[in-house]
Amino acid sequence: MEPWTPSEDALLLDKKRSFDEVNVLLSKRSEKEIWDRMTKLRSQVGPESLRRRHTADESMRLPVMGIQRNNTWDR
Hints:
This protein is 59% helix and 0% strand. By secondary structure, the protein is mainly α. The chain has one domain (6-61). The chain is globular, with a radius of gyration of 20 Å.
């Protein structure tokens, strides 16, 4: 079995494509290989990674919203 390429992984993560379409586009891979890889990739892109991305987005917006971070205590 050949290693998966980034472009193959991108096809598997594209939720706009049907399994039949991916199966045709990845004709050198068996259906079992495709399902197994798709399952592995999609389990890695779960709620936790989405939560981290959302948190990072929120922290990037703070200065735009006029909120400044102050890591020192006022006395």
